[in-house]
UniProtKB/TrEMBL annotation:
<keyword id="KW-0238">DNA-binding</keyword>
<dbReference type="Pfam" id="PF04397">
    <property type="entry name" value="LytTR"/>
</dbReference>
<dbReference type="GO" id="GO:0003677">
    <property type="term" value="F:DNA binding"/>
</dbReference>
<dbReference type="InterPro" id="IPR007492">
    <property type="entry name" value="LytTR_DNA-bd_dom"/>
</dbReference>
<feature type="domain" description="Response regulatory">
    <location>
        <begin position="3"/>
        <end position="114"/>
    </location>
</feature>
<dbReference type="Pfam" id="PF00072">
    <property type="entry name" value="Response_reg"/>
</dbReference>
<feature type="domain" description="HTH LytTR-type">
    <location>
        <begin position="149"/>
        <end position="220"/>
    </location>
</feature>
<dbReference type="InterPro" id="IPR046947">
    <property type="entry name" value="LytR-like"/>
</dbReference>
<dbReference type="InterPro" id="IPR001789">
    <property type="entry name" value="Sig_transdc_resp-reg_receiver"/>
</dbReference>
<dbReference type="InterPro" id="IPR011006">
    <property type="entry name" value="CheY-like_superfamily"/>
</dbReference>
<keyword id="KW-0597">Phosphoprotein</keyword>
<feature type="modified residue" description="4-aspartylphosphate">
    <location>
        <position position="54"/>
    </location>
</feature>
<protein>
    <submittedName>
        <fullName>LytTR family DNA-binding domain-containing protein</fullName>
    </submittedName>
</protein>
Length: 251
């Protein structure tokens, strides 16, 4: 896990970063502060591996913080001022995020940090993250009704029953699996996962979504509903989706 702290004199900015950090399985939120001096103490104590650092702050600027912190941690600068980018990179920062920070841009930055801080982990995670237990002919030849997904550590896998999956959202090199009482995020592309899921009941309805047709409660035009969530039906997938619905009407 990469331990992260947020240093920003605006609480809403730290809250947004914390929400983003909580979505990524290899990141751990270790605290936030409006005081760069306090944050320097955390860095000196080895409390964090990665700092999300604002530039314009009253006690110390982010650039002054970088000079004092030295090479004790990796830093991603977060600011509304693009003119500091060059100087930031001269201090060997991992990345430079301009506010307001979009999640996809945040994800790209932390992947850079992971490559620097956990190179061995990255090479392991690059391998397929979804595995199914090999069938044992002496026991049964029936296909498995579950899969295992890679957890946040090297040898951790979580069992996911197909019947529990409501829908799946793709986030570049990550996917979020939405279950009735839980969301599981793991390192895998939506395309690779699509090839491993049984079809039906699973069907890709959008470049960013795979759904379980069994969990759809209503379809209204180009929108489908699963529980209280509405999801778009992409134009590319529309004809196949409605054909699937009609075929299941005949069952």
């Amino acid at each position: 896990m990469i331990r992260c702290i947020c240093v920003d004199d605006e609480a809403y900015a730290s809250n947004l970063l914390k929400a983003y950090i909580d979505k990524i399985p290899f990141l751990e939120f270790a605290g936030s502060t409006t005081s760069p001096i306090e944050a320097l103490g955390w860095v000196s104590d080895g409390r964090c591996d990665l700092v999300f650092l604002d530039i314009q702050m009253p006690e110390l600027t982010g650039l002054q913080f970088l000079k004092l912190a030295g090479n004790k941690c990796k830093v991603i600068l977060t600011t509304a001022y693009p003119e500091y980018a060059l100087e930031g990179y001269e201090h060997d920062v991992v990345d430079y995020l301009l506010k307001p920070i979009a999640f996809d841009r945040f994800l790209k930055a932390v992947q850079k940090a992971q490559a620097l801080l956990q190179p061995a982990t990255v090479s392991v995670q690059a391998a397929p993250s979804f595995v199914t237990l090999p069938s044992t002919p002496a026991v049964t030849s029936a296909p498995a009704d579950y899969m295992f997904v890679k957890g946040e550590s090297k040898n951790k896998f979580l069992r996911i029953n197909y019947a529990d999956i409501l829908y799946i959202e793709g986030l570049k090199n990550y996917v979020s699996l939405y279950l009735p009482q839980q969301r599981v995020v793991t390192y895998q592309t939506l395309r690779d996962l699509e090839e491993q899921l049984p079809q039906p009941p699973f069907y890709r309805v959008h470049k960013s979504y795979i759904i379980s047709i069994d969990k759809v409660s209503m379809v209204d035009g180009n929108t489908l509903y699963i529980q209280d969530t509405s999801l778009p039906i992409g134009e590319t997938y529309r004809d196949g989706f409605f054909k699937l619905i009609k075929d299941r009407e005949k069952l």
